[in-house]
Amino acid sequence: MARLIDQLPGVAMPVEEVTETLRHMWDTPAPTEDHPLDFRASQMNLILHFGLRTTPDEATTEFDRAIAFAQTYPCRLIVLCPAEETGGPHAFEGKLFSQCYLGRHLRETCCCEALILGYSPEESDFLESQVSIWLEPDLPTYHWLHRVPPERVEQSYEGFLKDCRRIIYDGAVEGDAYDPIPWPDPDRVRDLSLARSLPLRQHIGQFLSGFPPAELAEGLRSLKVEHDKAHHRMAGHLLAWQRSAIKKCFADPLEAKKVEFSVNPLPEAGEETEAIRIEFSYTKRAKTFVFAYQPEDKAGSIRAKYPSGAYDHSLHIEPLPEATVLAEALFFA
């Protein structure tokens, strides 16, 4: 099987030479007004941490996404590429990637750096020490897990993660595997699937905010989210978000507890292309709310009946670029 470190761009070199090479690679005369050096200024460290089950194509895709993110949010990118064997005890392999990108106006320059480390998963203690040498000091560190087994996260990488400002993973890839991990601070952990749901939350929230809370709550019997296979995690996040919001609409907390919340797979698809469907059911049939999302068409719809009026809206829902999804998960979600 191809090794991940061999699939990524960069120049191979001994690990101990990576930082020294990086230090002198940008040697230039002192910055001037016409030739500033702030295009290399980093705001953060981002560790992209692959597990053994990562495929070469996935590694390339996620690396490219990280580089696209770094062009907007300058960072020191450290990429950890596992291999079954690294050539001996405590042996690491190094690689250095650096590339400059010009903006639309040519004067907008951004240079991205990635320090890539090949390692054995059995050497987690030495791995942490090596990464600490590569981090930009005095800058916040963020950790992105991709196909790292949850038991290894829990048993071997606690030291890695305890000082990270935020830890992210992709629930569309990991499924529910990371849910049982007893994170020391769950508020610092984010799922990229939650970030991807932002456009849906914005459309739903904007529409429902036009109604009095009491009108939304009166007679509400159930709130269900249905999903296709690819949107299981997003559906769960949407349900949790709606549960939190709708409960605040009830004047009586006891009435709020009577509402049934559920998330379920959509029925077998026919000609429908829905990926997400959200439905509010009321005791009175005259009241209803249904939201549907078709990502392939970048489309959605809202059908609603309330005492204040009936509505049937078509929506254009533009998915977030993946680099923006990263930013949303790291900083905002």
Task: Explain how this protein is built.
- The protein is of the alpha/beta class and 333 residues long.
- It is 33% helix and 29% strand.
- The protein has 13 helices and 14 strands.
- The strands form 2 sheets. An 8-stranded mixed beta sheet has the order 1-4-5-3-2-6-7-8, sandwiched between helices. The protein has a 6-stranded mixed beta sheet with strand order 10-9-11-12-13-14.
- The longest helix has 17 residues, at 56-72.
- It is elongated.
- The two termini are 36 Å apart.
- The model has no long low-confidence stretch (mean pLDDT 90).
Topology:
Elements: H1 4-7, E1 11-13, H2 15-25, E2 44-50, H3 56-72, E3 75-82, E4 93-102, E5 109-119, H4 124-134, E6 141-146, H5 150-156, H6 158-161, E7 166-169, H7 171-174, E8 189-191, H8 192-196, H9 198-208, H10 213-217, E9 220-227, H11 232-247, H12 253-256, E10 260-265, E11 276-282, E12 288-294, E13 299-306, E14 309-316, H13 322-332
Helix pairs in contact: 3-13
